[in-house]
Design brief:
Largest sheet: 6 strands, antiparallel
Structural class: alpha+beta
Number of helices: 11
Distance between the termini: 32 Å
Helix content: 55-70%
Order of helices and strands: HHEHHEEEEHHHEHHEEHHEE
Radius of gyration: 38 Å
Length: 578
């Protein structure tokens, strides 16, 4: 049969967190602007000093190096924070067995903001499934924690892309020496005292030595500068996929709690709707007794049945209150308030085409499950780290530094002790190669990265096996639940007809009271069985949806799949389910 591509995950629940993230992005842009101004001012001073000293070639080399570094940083400044707004939509799929669902239930308007997460105490909180899911996205601490993990990996990526950018240093140093000194020829001279002072870009110099801490300094191992940025990209992808998987699991838990509340309220509503049925049986028994038919035991049995039904209603109310409190805990709402699902008949939801072949569903899940995407990113990260360790002994550590400032000094042999200040510039370039521990250290690092790569592959294989099992189990459960609905509906219709026939015979004096009471019990059991079957089918549909790699918010049931809202009668809510 024809299939349609599933919609991408919606972003409504992320709007409030994204506004805060955008504010942080503005602050970072302001900080980068101030940093750029400082760079330009420092370079202007350095270039002026270099031109006075005739060192323009060195300045040209430094500017070229800085331009290359800025180019490497540009992608980070372009998308540094914006990707946090989503864990990322599933990859485009050519085919999908997900059928077009009816309009989503009560989903107009933006999701609640985190600041309004904890609602004030209230007697009743009307809540539909879509609002509950968006609220969970906004306020759940585990989802917030996974988003902060994405922010952390984005910060690491920005730092990796900035490895070839120069650091700016400014300061000065004072050098004072007392006592003899040795010349390069080995001769010892008495020098007392000798002093020097340096102020400007960079610090730490004395005598004819260069500036140890340059004003503009690039110092980076090329193996890190080349391989850390792609490794950081893989970490961001992994963090986004992990966050998406965590969100799917948490939202599925919200759906489960919501359906538990729906089931409890539907059972309670069924009891209250059928409160008149035992009374009808009792009236028929009393009428028979008045006509000389039956016995007092029949009346006692009917009265006892009415009392037991009241106890069952109390237990159903308890179950509904507990389910409401559990859902409120997941949504961080006031647990003393009562959560009410929206009104509507209890009907099964169709989210997935169950006629699709299991292999097609597994293939879809293998392309869209975020756990597998996270495994792919982890494998790519381990492969990048392995390549980095293989290239490390072949790539040098590079240091490029340029400094400019005022320098002066003197000694007892060349007075004054501190004087004759003048501008000076220093430009230094060096590169060195390192082989750690005679090469055994590099070999150990390569073996470690190779083991991490193999471990990532194994973890991904385990995740794929788990995904296949989950899809097959969820599909089997959904099919069984769908068939169970038809069986339960047939039992309910038969029990309804049987009870009505027994009640009519009892009224005409041709039936036994115990037959009517037993038929009533079977009818109540059939109604509860139908409720459990419908809710179980919804639960299985959502479980299969998540097993395929899609969020519960991607596909919501029609408003008809909503659950009854309270109709206050005699101060108590009553539900009409069927």
């Amino acid at each position: 049969m024809g299939v349609r591509r599933p919609p991408f995950p919606r972003m409504d629940g992320h709007r409030a967190p994204i506004q805060a993230i955008g504010t942080i992005g503005l602050r970072r842009r302001a900080a980068l602007a101030l940093f750029a101004i400082a760079v330009v001012a420092n370079l202007a001073v350095v270039i002026w000093l270099a031109c006075r000293r005739g060192n323009a070639a060195a300045v040209g080399m430094l500017l070229a190096a800085q331009a290359a570094g800025c180019a490497s940083l540009h992608p980070a400044s372009r998308d540094g924070v914006a990707p946090i707004e989503a864990a990322g939509p599933p990859r485009p799929l050519p085919r999908s067995p997900i059928e077009a669902a009816p309009p989503a239930l009560a989903r107009s308007g933006p999701g609640p903001s985190p600041s309004a997460a904890i609602l004030p105490p209230a007697a009743v909180i009307p809540l539909d499934l879509g609002t509950a899911l968006r609220l969970a996205e906004a306020v759940n601490p585990e989802i917030a924690l996974s988003r902060e993990a994405i922010r952390g990996t984005l910060a690491l990526r920005q730092g990796a892309r900035a490895l070839l950018l120069p650091s700016l240093n400014a300061g000065g140093n004072y050098h004072g020496h007392t006592g003899p000194v040795q010349k390069s020829t080995g001769q010892i001279n008495s020098l007392y005292p000798e002093q020097s002072l340096y102020l400007g870009g960079g610090a730490e110099t004395a005598a004819a030595g260069t500036i140890a801490i340059p004003a503009v300094w690039i110092l980076a191992p090329l193996a890190d500068a080349l391989y850390d940025p792609p490794a950081a990209d893989r970490r961001v992808e992994e963090a986004r996929s992990v966050a998406q998987a965590s969100s799917h699991e948490i939202l599925l838990g919200v759906v489960t709690s919501y359906l538990e509340l729906v089931e409890a309220e539907a059972v309670l509503g069924t009891y209250r709707r059928s409160e008149s049925e035992p009374q009808e049986v009792r009236k028929a028994i009393d009428a028979n007794l008045a006509g000389g038919r039956g016995s007092g035991a029949d009346a006692d049995r009917a009265a006892s049945d009415v009392g037991s039904r009241r106890a069952e209603v109390l237990r159903a109310e308890e179950a509904a209150a507990i389910a409401s409190a559990r859902l409120a805990r997941r949504l961080r709402l006031d647990p003393s308030a009562r959560i009410w699902p929206p009104a509507g008949p209890l009907e099964p939801s169709l989210l997935i085409d169950l006629d699709a072949d299991t292999r097609d569903l597994i293939d879809l899940a293998s392309r869209s499950r975020p756990e597998l995407a996270a495994g792919d990113a982890a494998i790519a990260l381990a492969r990048t780290r392995l390549a980095q360790e293989r290239a490390r002994p072949l790539l040098p550590t590079v240091s490029v530094g340029f400094s400019g400032g005022a320098y002066g000094g003197g000694s007892n042999q060349s007075p004054p002790l501190v004087g004759r200040f003048a501008g000076r510039t220093d430009f230094d370039v060096l590169a060195f190669w390192s082989v750690q521990d005679l090469g055994f250290g590099n070999r150990a690092l390569r073996r470690r990265r190779s083991a991490e790569h193999d471990q990532a592959i194994s973890r991904r294989s385990l995740a794929l096996d788990r995904v296949r099992t989950e899809v097959a189990e969820a599909r089997a459960e959904a099919i069984a639940s769908r068939r169970g609905i038809e069986i339960a509906r047939g039992e309910s219709e038969s029990a309804e007809a049987g009870f009505q026939a027994d009640l009519d015979r009892l009224r005409l004096g041709g039936g036994l009271p115990i037959e009517a009471l037993q038929s009533l019990r079977r009818l109540e059991q059939a109604r509860r069985s139908l409720i459990r079957s419908v809710v179980g089918s919804d639960r299985a549909q959502f479980a299969l949806l998540v097993a395929l790699g899609f969020a519960p918010l991607d596909r919501l049931p029609a408003p008809g799949a909503g659950r009854p809202s309270p109709e206050v009668a005699s101060g108590r809510p009553a539900f009409s389910t069927f």
